[in-house]
Design brief:
Oligomer: single chain
Strand order of the largest sheet: 4-3-6-1-2-5
CATH topology of the largest domain: Rossmann fold
Number of domains: 3
Bound molecules: FE2/S2 (inorganic) cluster
Helix content: 10-25%
Strand content: 25-35%
Mean pLDDT: 91
CATH class of the largest domain: Alpha Beta
Structural class: alpha/beta
Number of strands: 18
CATH architecture of the largest domain: 3-Layer(aba) Sandwich
Radius of gyration: 20 Å
């Protein structure tokens, strides 16, 4: 079971360089404000970037995890975003100082004989970091990068010049049919010891994960990370109650507010970040009642256990949830 630290250390970093990596994708190289090394990270890790007052977004680290002098993130400019990517693109420049959280990892590499890395669009960021690590350790892997077009493919040059270039295939929506990735075909025969990692837009991830499950891949060999902005919203929400087990207090959640808002309004301290069910920061233990999970953070198995939920977006299937608060 994944649990977030209640106090996540923050630090200040300087933007050493900003670079246009592809159409609508910029990378930001972050170094310690005071110089010196940064806390280590493992492939698949992300950082919280405090973009501006109250706005925190998660970005995967995409540089070599052996590096300690910098963190590299890449941000897709999404006009429809809730502000994070817009603010990063519009206002963050080389020389600026940002507050970030220390790296956290919900998407680590597994111990296995072989690794299949599938990236869709900006989902290349953690996948590239994984490829770098697997290449360093000499592990067997192949990587597929699926994007709308070559000009929208971040780090194409870096990958082409890497030591593992021969293990990577690019697939573009606007290219000939022959170069498109046959997802069901590639996933048709799961092997013991082979691990699948996928990150990208929700449609891409759903296609990959449903094809893998249809072919009988065990859940223990499937690894995935959704990113912010993809939470499925549903209408028709109903009010419910939260009972705080430590005091017996009951907090009502109206149909037009989230459980997180209700708890904060009631003066209950809950750490949160993405508020979209992606990062897991608000994960709270459930002692009784059945949550209506709407997050993209917990695995299917973790959701089915019904012993924790994300109050920023999830609701309740029962009239009351009893929380370990
Ligand atoms: Fe990110 Fe709730 S704040 S999952």
């Amino acid at each position: 079971m994944r649990q977030e630290p209640s106090n996540h250390p923050l630090m200040r970093v300087r933007v050493a360089t900003r670079r246009q990596e592809a159409t609508d994708i910029a990378s930001f190289e972050l170094v310690a404000e005071s110089g010196g090394p940064l806390p280590a990270f493992a492939a698949g890790a992300h950082i919280d970037v405090h973009v501006r007052d109250g706005l925190v977004r998660q970005y995967s680290l995409c540089n070599d995890p052996a590096e300690t002098h910098r963190y590299l993130i890449a941000v897709l400019h999404e006009p429809a975003s809730r502000g994070g990517s817009k603010a990063m693109h519009a206002s963050v420049q080389a020389g600026d100082v940002l507050t970030i959280g220390e790296p956290r990892n919900h998407f680590p590499l597994a111990a296995g004989d072989r690794h299949l890395l599938l990236a869709g669009g900006i989902g290349v960021t953690p996948i590239l970091c994984m490829a770098q690590r697997l290449a360093t350790t000499g592990a067997a892997f192949e990587m597929h990068v699926c994007t709308r077009s070559a000009d929208r493919t971040a780090f194409r040059e870096r990958i082409a010049q890497s030591s593992f270039a021969a293990q990577v295939r690019f697939h573009h929506d606007d290219g000939p049919a022959s170069q498109k990735l046959d997802i069901p075909g590639r996933l048709a025969r799961p092997q013991a010891g082979e691990h699948l990692y996928v990150c990208g837009p929700k449609g891409f991830m759903d296609a990959v994960l449903s094809a893998a499950r249809a072919s009988g891949w065990p859940e223990t060999q499937l690894h995935y990370e959704f990113f912010a902005g993809q939470t499925v919203q549903s209408g028709g929400d109903q009010p419910f109650e939260l009972e705080l087990a430590r005091t017996g207090r009951v907090v009502c959640v109206r149909e037009d507010q989230t459980a997180l808002q209700a708890l904060l309004d009631a003066g209950v301290e809950i750490e949160s970040s993405c508020e979209q069910g992606v990062c897991g920061t608000c994960a709270t233990r459930v002692l009784a009642g059945v949550p209506d999970h709407k997050d993209l953070y917990f695995t299917q198995e973790e959701q089915a256990a019904n012993d924790q939920f994300t109050p920023c977006c999830s609701r309740a299937r029962t009239a009351r949830l009893v929380l370990d608060l």
